[in-house]
């Protein structure tokens, strides 16, 4: 229903779910923060400069957009989005969390596979004012994935450490710092 993908569309998320590493797939297994039989969440390869470590949640089965997504799968995706948002608050010491999801060309959908963005938000981060920047190197994405998985698995252990923006050093925007108790 309301589909826009070309007939010969080579879906990068379906390829990633199958473990295929070739263009147009930019993600790799070390990006994954959660996976079960129905859904997968991973650090997005394309990052906004002030919101590094943002996550995409996808259904493993191909559903082009929200119109095609079964209600039970949508519920599972949003339950996971909540868990990831809580983990981000502790892991990244962010000031807030935003989610967003796009459908069809006029809704700014670029990948023809349903996906939900979960962004760490920081005061004055200008998320909606600037386009995404670059593909984050694999090792940096793996660092964010490892940290976020710790907080997902520990269920928000308050004595853990996290990362937060370093306003003094814009070239190394995120540094590990002890979380305030």
Textual characterization of the structure:
The protein is α+β, with helices and mostly antiparallel strands and 181 residues long. The chain has a single domain, classed as HIT family, subunit A. Helices cover 24% and strands 22% of the residues. The protein contains three helices and nine strands. A hairpin with an 8-residue loop joins strand 8 and strand 9. The chain is globular, with a radius of gyration of 16 Å. The C terminus is likely disordered.
The tally of helices reads 3
First and last CA, distance: 49 Å
Please state the average pLDDT score: 85
Helix content: 10-25%
* Class inferred from helices and paired strands: alpha+beta
CATH superfamily: HIT-like
Poorly predicted regions: 155-181
Under the CATH scheme, the architecture is: 2-Layer Sandwich
State the domain count: 1
Give the helix/strand layout.
Elements: H1 12-17, E1 32-35, E2 39-43, E3 46-47, E4 55-59, H2 71-91, E5 96-100, E6 116-121, E7 134-135, H3 138-154, E8 161-165, E9 174-178
Antiparallel strand pairs: 1-2, 2-4, 3-7, 4-6, 5-6, 8-9
Helix pairs in contact: 2-3
């Amino acid at each position: 229903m309301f589909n826009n993908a070309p007939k010969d569309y080579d879906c990068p998320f379906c390829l990633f779910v199958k473990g295929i590493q070739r263009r147009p797939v930019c993600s790799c297994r070390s990006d994954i923060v959660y996976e079960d039989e129905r859904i997968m969440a991973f650090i997005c390869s394309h990052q906004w400069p002030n919101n590094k470590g943002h996550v995409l949640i996808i259904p493993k089965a191909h559903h082009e957009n929200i119109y095609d997504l079964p209600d039970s799968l949508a519920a599972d995706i949003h339950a996971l989005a909540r868990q990831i948002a809580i983990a981000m608050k502790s892991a990244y010491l962010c000031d807030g969390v935003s989610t967003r999801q796009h459908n069809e060309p006029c809704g700014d959908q670029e990948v023809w596979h349903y996906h939900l963005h979960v962004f760490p938000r920081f005061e004055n981060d200008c998320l909606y004012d600037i386009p995404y920047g670059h593909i984050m190197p694999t090792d940096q994405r793996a660092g964010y994935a490892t940290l976020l998985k710790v907080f997902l698995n520990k269920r928000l252990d308050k004595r853990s450490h996290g990362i937060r923006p370093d306003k003094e050093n814009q070239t190394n925007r995120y540094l590990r710092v002890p979380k305030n108790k």
